[in-house]
Amino acid sequence: MSRLSGYYAAEGSAYWVVEDEGAVVGGCGIAPFAGSREVCELQKMYLLPRMRGTGAAALLLTAALSFAQRRYRRCYLETLTAMAAANRFYAKHGFVPLAAPLAGSEHFACDAWYIKELSGKA
Fold it and tell me: Which residue range is the domain that position 111 belongs to?
């Protein structure tokens, strides 16, 4: 976590933040999944509780997917089934649940996996 700026400075990666009154209150990132040139991963999507329900998450996701669709064919994400609101949010935005993680996953604590087909990259 202490090296996020360096991690997301890599080719095909980016990170967005939401600020409120000068403070960072949320963010999300896109990075290649397991070194893939076809699949990216939505990572570190988080908003402080007071920002949930404000539309900020949708704005973050829109920015991330706009970036991703110019570079990748699919966007993958991992989360927890216990995070019911997050799972509803991802489904609402076109992410389809998977029965298992994609090969190459490094997140063994997650138990919900999603994929979204992107249009844009030829």
Answer: 4-117
**Residue 99 is assigned to a structural domain of this protein:** yes
Looking at residue 33, which CATH number applies to its domain?
3.40.630.30
Is 95 within the bounds of a domain? yes
32 token code pair: 């290649």
Asked if residue 65 belongs to a domain, the reply is yes
pLDDT tens, residue by residue, 61-110: 999 999 999 999 999 999 999 999 999 999 999 999 999 999 988 878 89
* 1: pLDDT strictly greater than 60: no
Domain tally, the chain: 1
* Distance separating the N- and C-terminal Cα atoms of the chain: 33
Tell me the whole-structure pTM to 2 decimals: 0.91
Helix, strand, coil percentages, rounded to 5, for the chain: 25, 35, 40
Name the band, by pLDDT with cuts 50, 70 and 90, for residue 2.
Answer: low
